Records
---
Amino acid sequence: DAEITQSPRHKITETGRQVTLACHQTWNHNNMFWYRQDLGHGLRLIHYSYGVHDTNKGEVSDGYSVSRSNTEDLPLTLESAASSQTSVYFCASSRTQGGNTEAFFGQGTRLTVV
Amino acid sequence: QKEVEQDPGPLSVPEGAIVSLNCTYSNSAFQYFMWYRQYSRKGPELLMYTYSSGNKEDGRFTAQVDKSSKYISLFIRDSQPSDSATYLCAMSALLDAGGTSYGKLTFGQGTILTVHP
């Protein structure tokens, strides 16, 4: 079955370190998204991509970067981890089509910055 | 002010109750309205979606959209303990005149629902 997987599921890192969270989908979807989820804020969009080599900033992109070198993967990099980036991170993908398109979410990565 | 506002609750109801969840929004460009359900330590899953104004029913779930008031609702009839989860409203805008949506979503804060036996 097609799916979307995130790794690692849990990560503890130190302030100032570079961290990369992986996201891999096997649906061959063009569109991929990274969200963070914090209490009281719901899910907020960090970065998104509508295809290979396309990346766009979302609502809360400061301190994060992404690159899209193939259809299946959109890794999220925290350039210099800060305690404010402690959160649960969700990757999602969707296909481009007329009408509503469902976004499928991964299981999440729980990141703690100490 | 956030584009999408949702009462975070928490909401606790007895089994069999009717549950009403609501969101308001400010962006007139939103055309697709969705409800996601998220169980503890899991990713969100699409529960219902509605295009523009109107109602949609699926089993015990009914989604309503009132674009004139910028207000959407999800009703759960005969609620069950298995319905205990966080419910997130989400919205997206059309990106072209052909009605294409790319899945870029703006979420409410989420409402934590507990249905107790």
---
Amino acid sequence: NAGVTQTPKFRVLKTGQSMTLLCAQDMNHEYMYWYRQDPGMGLRLIHYSVGEGTTAKGEVPDGYNVSRLKKQNFLLGLESAAPSQTSVYFCASSSGRGAVGTDTQYFGPGTRLTVL
Amino acid sequence: AQSVTQPDIHITVSEGASLELRCNYSYGATPYLFWYVQSPGQGLQLLLKYFSGDTLVQGIKGFEAEFKRSQSSFNLRKPSVHWSDAAEYFCAASDYKLSFGAGTTVTVRA
């Protein structure tokens, strides 16, 4: 089992460019999450999904879009990148046996994004 | 507003010494409580979690945490620290969405 994988590991964008971050999990988990991690602020939830075809906003959703077309994949898109989106992005998944956010989350290794 | 507070930004501890990391939460009702560890350049790994029942929770890597309702705290402890415990530790709480504290960085000196 690879667990949770994220592509790419690093990326540098110019302001206004767009990109998509891919998260894949092979644990047949129902729930998936995208977080951003900034120094001194812990992790903040961007968007999450409780199943294929469903998404919901988290704490800091502005400037991001997501899609969950397949159960194993959760995509995070930046349509017009801004320097404030420079961060480390983590994807996570959980089984879905409990209410969302209450069961153990398994994290990917992260994507370090720099927006110039 | 719901929040998780980790009062200590950085802790330095000698190898073999005990470690305690503090966590306080502010929720209307007792949330689900978690401790995660992040090694440099890695994702987060769950150390332990508390939902209900026994207030002393055992986790992996020799860690334990104690839930104290009266103090709204969920402190993490380890009796004897190893050099490999150097990492960033996050306390988290959830009623339906997971909220993380800002993290405590632990440095282990020989």
